[in-house]
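User: Hey, my collaborator sent me this sequence without any context and asked if I could get a structure. I don't really work with proteins. Can you help?
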Amino acid sequence: MLTHVTIFLCADRFRKASLVVNDGAKSPWTSRRAQHRWRLWGKFLAAGLWAGILSTASDALGEDAGRSSAPALNSAAADSSDSAEAYPELRAVISYKIAMSPHAGAHQLDRDIQTAQQRVREASEPRPFLEQLGWLYVAKARQSSDEGFYKLAEHCALALEATEPGNPDALLLRGHVLISLHHFTEAEAIASQLVRQRTLPFDYGLLGDALTEQGRLAEAVAAYQRMVDLRPDLQSYSRVAYMRWLKGDLDGAIDVACLAAGAASPLDPESASWTLTRLALYYFQAGLVAQAEVARDSALRFTPDYPSALLLKSRMLLDADRVGEAVEPLKRATEINPLPEFQWALADTLRAAGRAEEAAKVESDLARTGAQGDPRTFALFLATRGEQAERAVQLVRRELQARADIFTHDALAWALAAAGRIEEAQAHMERALAEGTEDARLFTHAAVIAARLGRTAEAGSWLVKARGLQRCLLPSERQQLAATLAALAMSREARSISPTRTQTTSAGESQVAEASPKTKTKPGETNEN
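Assistant: No problem. I've predicted the 3D structure and written it out in structure-token form, which is a compact way to encode the shape of the chain:
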């Protein structure tokens, strides 16, 4: 209860504010702002402690519920001797039969799915339990990274719609599945239908998600603002924080992410872990490592072995020059979630640790499955390694047809640059930078492309920004950054920014000159400064 009081005390202030604060000028780190930040941090810590108490209580309640669930289900079945015959038209639908396929597993979520299936079979009114089963499948898909569970969730929704066309709860479920499967245009159509039918916050959340992935941020902002106006909670705060980050307002993202973290509950551990990991990422980008560690470890307490939190832990260990320790968290994350983002990071970390043979095996797995698992990230990997550049371009062009956000434009720009098509790359790089997002990878790519176009001053400016955030880069990307710094400093156009000269042509070039000696690396080494 304490957690909810804390959140809603803060909600009034936030509800009156514009969702995105980005007037082109960053607020200074004043003492008043620092005090406000630490007040939020104190509330987050208190909420974390309370969540631990709730988690312990929840475990005990779960054991009691496990012991008593069978009698409760038998009681529900007894309410109607004809329950198995209720809604015969629903039970005859193919999607219903697929959704009710026997589910194995001994984890808590697996047991929840089994219980929901039993309730669907025995209830005289099975539809609410079928909807619940669909959301459990969504949770299982997120936990296991197995898209097959998204398809099972979709079949739950289709079965409900077969007997009640236009059922809004079924539409919402199917819309979230479509988002997860990257069918953003179809998800937007469903969300638009829902917001015309009713005024519920999750409908606006779905709409905002679909618009964000299509790169239509102005429309997404309006949807998220409506969502948080209707219901300020973990789901809406998390989206607001992410939008502020996309718009280049890191301080604002941290403020709102603290509110989201305070609303985390052990009743929804996956959402709690996602939110806390995002907060940890924001802190890490801001250089607030101690706070990032607390948020990251809290995410892992909600969901042990949460892959994204393990990935962040590895990156933080790399930044602390603890390369050997950085391998194991990533190995575990990749076992759970063998997608290109994790495989690439693991291969880089293994190479940094001098374990080249193991890295080569991971890269072989990535080459075999990457295009299907996550074509955009796989294309970034290929372009960064200078391999199969035209294939990388083709992969991202296909992705861009459905997902025209800033990160897809960045991936296409980087692939085109690797293919030597620099003018085309620059056009997409400008699209990627248009929202003012503060991101080390974006800045590194912008610097390399500008340098290849001969725009020395512009390249120098982007390099300064990238170097300030290089802790967020993978080892191979840090090498790219260091190589570009060195090449720019040695080029004829950039002689005036050489460390041996004092004259500069621009402020950005002057800072690059100061940075150059610190970023020299030997082949196979990375720079952690």
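In plain terms: The chain is about 75% helix and 0% strand. You can pass these tokens on to your collaborator as they are.
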